Amino acid sequence: MATIVGAATALSASKSFDSRKLHLPSRGSLSVSERKGSFLVVRSDGSVVHKAHRAQKLITNAVATKADSSAASTAPKPGHELLLFEALREGLEEEMDRDPTVCVMGEDVGHYGGSYKVTKGLATKYGDLRVLDTPIAENSFTGMGIGAAMTGLRPIVEGMNMGFLLLAFNQISNNCGMLHYTSGGQFKIPIVIRGPGGVGRQLGAEHSQRLESYFQSIPGIQMVACSTPYNAKGLMKAAIRSENPVILFEHVLLYNLKERIPDEEYVCSLEEAEMVRPGEHVTILTYSRMRYHVMQAAKTLVNKGYDPEVIDIRSLKPFDLHTIGNSVKKTHRVLIVEECMRTGGIGASLTAAITENFNDYLDAPIICLSSQDVPTPYAGTLEEWTVVQPAQIVTAVEQLCQ
C-alpha cells in the first residue's frame, strides 16, 4: 500500500468540545488501511463484537487486531494490484469498450494522458474524436459536454483541477443540473465531471480547494468521492452508467494508493456508504483522504480501549442515511471528520441531516472536525495546520465517550 504524508489539520468542533486541549503532533506518515470494512473486531477475551445494542462500558486491555495470519499471508490472493489512478483508467476503459457513446474531453486528456495519467493511452486506442483535447476554456468544453449528453453521448469531462471548474459553474448549475427538469424530461444529462482536488503538498490556495460544498447545493446533481482503488473503479463505472449528472471527486494525494481489486467486473452504488470498521462506542463519518487519518486514529483508540465505528460516506449527495442512521442508533455518538471547510461544508449538511432524523438517539452533541475557513497557505508548515490530524480525532473521541 502507498504511504500518505499526513497534512496537519485545524480543529473545528461543536461548542461542547474544548479545542484548547488539543496538541498537534509532528508530521508523520501513515499506512493505508484495508479497502473494505468487512472484518470483525475481536475483544481481548476472545469474544466477537457484533451486538446491536449499546455498549455499556469501554473495552479493557484492547489491542489492534492483525490483518492476516502467517498462513493466510503466504497464500496467493485473487485479483490484481492497481494504483488508484490506474483503477480509474481501467474503469473508464472498460466502459469505453462496452459503450461506444462514452467519450472523454478536457485539457491534456489526449496524447499527454491527463495531468495525473488517468487517460493515458486512451487517445491511441480510441482516437481523437472519443478522447478530445480541449483548449483552456472550462466554461466552453463543460458546456460542450452537457450538449453532447443531451444528444445521446455519455461524456466524461475532466477538470485538470477542481478549482478550475469554478469557471464552468454556470454550465454545471444552470444547465447540467436543471435541463432535465426545465425541458420537462425531454433531455437526460448522463455526464460525469471528475478531477482532483483537496490539499496536496504546497500547491497553493487556488489548487488546494475543496469544492464539494459548492456543488452540493445544486439541485439535480449527484456527488461521490472515491478513497480507494476499489471504490474509485466501481464509482467511475457507476457514474458513467447513470442517467444523472455525476460529479466524481478525487483527491490529489490518493492517486498513488495501491490495492488489489477483483479481476471480475463490479460496479459500486452511487448512493451507499461503506462500512470500513464496525464498532460500538462512536460513529466516525468521513470520506476521501480523511478516511486514512481516521483509520490511523482508530488504531490508537482501540489500544486505549475504545471501539469506534468508521464509515466512509462516499455518497456526498444524497447521503446514505440508512447506513448512517443504523450506526447512530447503535453508538449514540457521532464524530464527523472532513477536509471540506467548516462553514457550509459537507459536515455541516451531514450534522443537520443527522440532527433532523436521529436526534432522539444521540447521547452527546455531534462533533465536526473540519478545515479552517482560510485559503490554504503555500508554506508547508502553515499548510499543515489547515486540515484534521489523527491526534485531534483521538482527543475528540475521548471527549465524546466521557
From TrEMBL:
Keywords: Chloroplast, Metal-binding, Oxidoreductase, Plastid, Potassium, Pyruvate, Thiamine pyrophosphate, Transit peptide. It is an enzyme of class 1 (oxidoreductase). Residues 82-257 form the Transketolase-like pyrimidine-binding domain. It catalyses: N(6)-[(R)-lipoyl]-L-lysyl-[protein] + pyruvate + H(+) = N(6)-[(R)-S(8)-acetyldihydrolipoyl]-L-lysyl-[protein] + CO2. One of its GO terms (cellular component) is chloroplast. Its cofactor is thiamine diphosphate. Its EC number is 1.2.4.1. Pfam families: Transket_pyr, Transketolase_C. Gene3D superfamilies: 3.40.50.920, 3.40.50.970. GO terms for molecular function: metal ion binding; pyruvate dehydrogenase (acetyl-transferring) activity. SMART domains: Transket_pyr. It is found in: Plastid, Chloroplast. InterPro entries: THDP-binding, Transketo_C/PFOR_II, Transketolase-like_Pyr-bd, Transketolase_C. PANTHER family: PYRUVATE DEHYDROGENASE E1 COMPONENT BETA SUBUNIT, PYRUVATE DEHYDROGENASE E1 COMPONENT SUBUNIT BETA. The pyruvate dehydrogenase complex catalyzes the overall conversion of pyruvate to acetyl-CoA and CO(2). It contains multiple copies of three enzymatic components: pyruvate dehydrogenase (E1), dihydrolipoamide acetyltransferase (E2) and lipoamide dehydrogenase (E3). Tetramer of 2 alpha and 2 beta subunits. This is pyruvate dehydrogenase (acetyl-transferring).
